[in-house]
Amino acid sequence: MMKQLISFLIIAVLALAVAIFFSENSTKFISNNSQPNPVVNTILSSTTTRAFTDKSVDDKTIDLIIKAGIQAPSARNIQPWHFSVVTNKEFIEKINTDTLTAGEKEAEKNPGRPKPPKDFHALFHAPIVIVISADIDSPSSTFDSALACENMSIAAQSLGLGTHIVTSVTMAFKGANEEIYRKTLGIPNDKKPVAILLIGEPNPAAADVVSKATVRNQEVVTYVK
């Protein structure tokens, strides 16, 4: 009789502990973003980081983010992408300089286009710059590569990192710089850069460290039931 009572008490205590654990964690999820699913939380609370610290990210984390990109779907499973991961600070600064130079030239050609500010950093001082390239001839390659880029961005944010997706930086890779960048970034001849994913730790000291999504237009859905 005593053994049965002790067994019952042990089971009751364990059940109570499990109930408390899930209750606390469920409350934590809901209070943060009103969604208990961590993937949905990451998407709905997604932000754009505009200032990064110079803290590096370990290779294991970078590889995990890249794997998330490779896992993206693509038309006919062509997987038309190539990822160039840049962590070299000097080369990142070169990309920034060439981007600003290209921006100034574009502004001279098009008077209505403003020149980049003198203190502007096109890569927001991110410690990790991933150049996403897509097949030149495939009609769906840019879309497919964008899916891969978004996969990596979501993965990085779910790991507590900040991200920023830009496309204007690809202007630095054109013209006289094209062959140099192709060789350094290992971009195959049948592909072209279409986007840049910036990753790093958000800088809390910056005035405008993150930018949340503006209010979304909800009148964009048609339901056919």
Task: Give an overview in words.
By secondary structure, this protein is α+β, with helices and mostly antiparallel strands. 44% of the residues lie in helices and 16% in strands. The chain is built from 6 helices and 6 strands. α3 runs antiparallel to α5. The longest helix has 32 residues.
Provide the descriptors you would attach to this structure in a database record.
225 residues; alpha+beta; two-stranded antiparallel sheet; globular
Mean pLDDT across residues? 86
Radius of gyration: 23 Å
What's the total count of β strands?
6
Q: What's the end-to-end separation, in Å?
A: 61 Å
> How many DSSP helices?
6
Helicity range of the residues?
A: 40-55%
Structural class: alpha+beta
Major beta sheet, strand line-up: 2-3-5-4
Summarize the structure.
With 225 residues, the chain is of the alpha+beta class. Helices cover 44% and strands 16% of the residues.
